Amino acid sequence: MFIREVCHKNKKNNTIYSTYKLVESVRTKQGPRQKAILNLGVDFNLPKDQWKLLALRIEELLEGRESLFTPVI
Question: What would the DSSP string read from start to end of 8-66?
Fold first, then answer.
């Protein structure tokens, strides 16, 4: 899993803004695809260097695994 920044353009006032999504890679017959798991919204303000840690922790929680280390966020 990873977090992706998606840019959008507001058609009414031509402003550009970003939303953030938690995405999972999935293998299909047509090849690898990405599936959006969770929309994190516009106000996602976690520093980019911590995105991977968050994605790994969410994956652990979804799979019911215990974390080897205590999360430091």
Answer: EE-TTT--EEEEEEEEEEEEETTEEEEEEEEEEES-----GGGHHHHHHHHHHHHHTPP
pTM for this one?
Answer: 0.74
Helix (H) or strand (E) holding 60: helix 51-63
35: its two tokens: 């599936």
**pLDDT tens per residue across span 24-53:** 999 999 999 999 998 999 999 999 999 998
Q: How far is CA 51 from CA 12, 21, 27, in A?
A: 31, 11, 23
